[in-house]
From TrEMBL:
Record-given protein name: Glutaminase
Top-level taxon of origin: Bacteria
Full-protein interval shown: 1 to 304 of 390
Keywords: Acetylation, Hydrolase
EC number(s) stated in the UniProt entry for this protein: 3.5.1.2
Family of the protein in this entry: Belongs to the glutaminase family.
Residues binding substrate, per UniProt: S63, N113, E157, N164, Y188, Y240, V258
Enzyme class: hydrolase
Keyword Zinc tagged: no
Length: 304
């Protein structure tokens, strides 16, 4: 076994016994998750994926889609047009809070639901299918393989998504949402329902770490400038109302999702991802947070 995989195995043994938290239950399909699953992966500059635990387990990407759809919008429209619709300040509030800026009605940032729905609505495409296709194509390029929507989770999201619809109506009333509410939220529910593994997320993180070039496929997915913008916003807003403490403890731009996934980016060094369904009160995975914190410590990845 190579020394990096041995180190990952060691961290797996250390963190596996932690059993605090509970899976998300506001979407019925997520409540049914196998809560014992734990996996994580790292990808370096040569695109070699090292993974331990349940690394073949698929789960829905959820909020971890947000930075990648933001990347797509920034790439297509440029920074100015995106920032006209969404801010870049931490909200200090939960992911599903209203958090709109006084006066402009812009959501605080693209990592909370309101901001992500606004950003998703900017993706070119006349209807849900066209927009979803653009999103799936881009996230697949980040992952280096074709990703698919989990239709059962999508149906569950849509059936229980009234709060997100309400947020979208508010955005539309402020002129911040592009197009119709239903188109925007259905495309957003689909982007959240894409199936990934920790391996995929680690490659996606690595693509941001290496300036927008996927180290596995060697393909440029986005411009270097866009990758930097996305990482900057993940750095201040990626872990919701835990973002400040996360930066203090771990020191890496990161993004979490309610199905228990977490990815972190050590610029020019590593893409890192973890998965474990039990969440803390902020909606971040308890064991994924511990894993990435431990890896950052052992690899000396804290940026500061
Ligand atoms: O918008 C929602 O409710 C979810 N489908 C995605 C939210 C999410 O992952 C927030 N994360 N912690």
């Amino acid at each position: 076994m190579d020394p990096i995989t041995a180190l990952l195995d060691d961290v797996l043994d250390e963190i596996a016994p932690q059993d605090a938290g509970a899976p998300a239950d506001y979407i019925p399909e997520l409540a049914a998750a196998d809560t014992d699953r734990l996996a994580f992966a790292v990808v370096g500059p040569h695109g070699r994926v090292r993974a331990v635990g349940d690394d073949a387990a698929e789960f829905t990407i959820q909020s971890i889609s947000k930075p990648f759809v933001l990347a797509l919008a920034l790439q297509e429209l440029g920074r100015e047009r995106v920032l006209a619709r969404v801010g870049v300040e931490p909200s200090g509030e939960p992911f599903n809070a209203i958090s709109l800026e006084m006066g402009t009605g812009r959501p605080a940032n693209p990592m909370i639901n309101a901001g992500a729905i606004a950003v998703s609505s900017l993706v070119p495409g006349g209807d849900v299918d066209e927009r979803t296709a653009r999103i799936v194509e881009t996230l697949s390029a980040f992952a280096g393989r074709s990703l698919w929507v989990d239709e059962a989770v999508y149906a569950s999201e849509s059936a229980t998504g009234d709060r997100n619809r309400a947020l979208a109506h508010l955005l539309r009333s402020h002129g911040v949402l592009e197009g119709e509410v239903e188109t925007a939220v259905e495309a957003y529910f689909r982007q959240c329902s894409l199936l990934v593994t920790v391996r995929d997320l680690a490659v996606m993180a690595a693509t941001l770490a290496f300036g927008g070039v996927n180290p596995l496929t060697r393909r440029r997915v986005i411009d270097e400038r866009v990758a930097r913008d996305v990482l900057s916003i993940m750095g201040s807003c990626g872990m919701y109302d835990f973002s400040g403490e996360w930066m203090l403890r771990v020191g890496l731009p990161a993004k979490s999702g309610v199905s228990g996934g977490l990815l972190a980016v050590a610029p020019s060094q590593f893409g890192v991802a973890a998965f474990s369904p039990r969440l803390d009160t902020h909606g971040n995975s308890v064991r994924s947070v511990l894993v990435v914190e431990e890896l950052a410590e052992r690899f000396g990845m804290h940026m500061l």
